[in-house]
Structure to design on (109 residues):
């Protein structure tokens, strides 16, 4: 078995992409399901311009943070580029930062 490593991925959205993001959310989540089941996608969620002030306020999303467990950085890039958010132009893939990461603490939600 190939060694597995953690990679922290930060991806900005293109400007004013929130409605576009919502249109492709279902495809994005469907794409992520098998990666989650395989233990490849460990953490994922949107970055926010600010936390909402109330429960009914929709937060302004500015990008995504993901934590992948993969055999190589090249494998992570392939997963990012094949994601519907990348293919549909929600994410600014050119602005993506992939950082090798060693997780010291991991707890269940």
């Amino acid at each position: 078995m190939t060694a597995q490593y953690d990679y922290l991925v930060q991806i900005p959205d293109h400007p004013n992409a929130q409605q576009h993001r919502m249109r492709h959310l279902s495809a994005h989540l469907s794409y992520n399901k098998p990666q989650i089941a395989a233990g490849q996608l460990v953490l994922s969620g949107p970055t926010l311009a600010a936390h909402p002030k109330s429960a009914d306020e929709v937060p302004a999303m500015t990008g995504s943070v993901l934590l992948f467990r993969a055999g190589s950085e090249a494998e992570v890039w392939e997963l990012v580029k094949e994601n519907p958010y990348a293919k549909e132009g929600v994410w600014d893939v050119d602005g993506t930062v992939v950082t090798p990461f060693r997780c010291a603490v991991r707890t269940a939600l």
Remarks:
- The chain has a mean pLDDT of 95.
